[in-house]
Amino acid sequence: MLKILTVVFMIICLIITIVILLQEGKQAGLTGAISGAAESYWGKNKGRSMEGKLEKITKICIILFFVLSLVLNMSFIGY
After folding, report:
1. pLDDT score at 7
2. Which of 31, 41, 52, 77 could tie 47 with a disulfide, CB 3.0–4.6 Å?
3. In terms of Cα–Cα distance, which of 1, 11, 23 is closest to 65?
4. Is the pTM value of this prediction over 0.70?
5. Could you write out the three-class secondary structure of the chain?
6. Which residues touch 6 (CB under 8 Å, ≥6 apart)?
7. What is the spatial distance between Cα 73 and Cα 55, in angstroms, rounded to a whole number?
8. Rounded-to-integer distance, Cα 48 and Cα 53, Å
9. Phi, psi of 25 (to 5 degrees)
10. What is each CA distance from 65 to 25, 42, 47, 69, 79, in whole angstroms?
């Protein structure tokens, strides 16, 4: 069971890395807001866009990362 959790943990680490690298930087968002792009259709419906989906995936993976890290830590301590 410990080996399976470790493999899942490593896969989640890779997914987090890839998803974070796919996201736009905050600098791109600032220039879009200055030029008025934030008022466009994509600015109002960010949750439905690719960027919104990547943020949701990141949040879910980070939560799984912390939970699995706690579980794996407890298993090494001996609980």
Report:
1. 94
2. 52
3. 11
4. no
5. CHHHHHHHHHHHHHHHHHHHHHCCCHHHHHHHHHHCHHHCHHHHCHHHCHHHHHHHHHHHHHHHHHHHHHHHHHHHHCC
6. 72
7. 27
8. 7
9. -75, 160
10. 22, 30, 23, 6, 19
